[in-house]
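Predict both folds.
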Amino acid sequence: EVQLVESGGGLVQPGGSLRLSCAASGFAFSSYWMYWVRQTPGKGLEWVSAINGGGGSTYYLDSVKGRFTVSRDNAKNTLYLQMTNLKTEDTGVYFCAGCNYWGQGTQVTVSS
């Protein structure tokens, strides 16, 4: 059974940082591109970042470039999203996705 379980969300002030994690199981994690997608009040569902199986290729939504960093640890079957200089418009539910599956999401709230 494929499972993707996100964690690390929370409430943070503007300018703050959070690190999201996504624990994957039930498939050959290192063989798959993995993605972070968010659902925000303002823009709906939005693709945020992607990383290839080996971790050598990464892509980002323009509005998060320079602030977010995607990475993965294939030995731990875990995907990460390091988010810095967070803005109120980053508020939303963050999902990891891959192998045609999605996790349940983790809430990120950026507010003073």
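Second protein follows, with its predicted structure tokens after the sequence.
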Amino acid sequence: QVQLVESGGGLVQSGGSLRLSCAASGRTFSNYAMGWFRQVPGKEREFVAAIRWSGSSTNYADSVKGRFTISRDNAKNTVYLQMNSLKFEDTAVYYCAADRWGLGTQVTVSS
């Protein structure tokens, strides 16, 4: 079964860091651009960051620029999101995306 599985979410204090991982299984995603999105209850899912298949190009939402870093390891079929200087407003369920969505991982930042 082809799937994306996120991990690394949790509870962190404002100013802290977390590293999310998204492991793809079932087939390789090395030819796909991959991205991270997030959603809070009652709001639409929003773009956070994306990375090209080669890792040569990345793109970020203005709200996370300078704080978040997306990377990938195609040999491990995994994409990462390093989140630093976390803010209360970063609290959300974070989803990995390629040609499908992962199930999401909860990130909660306490103020």
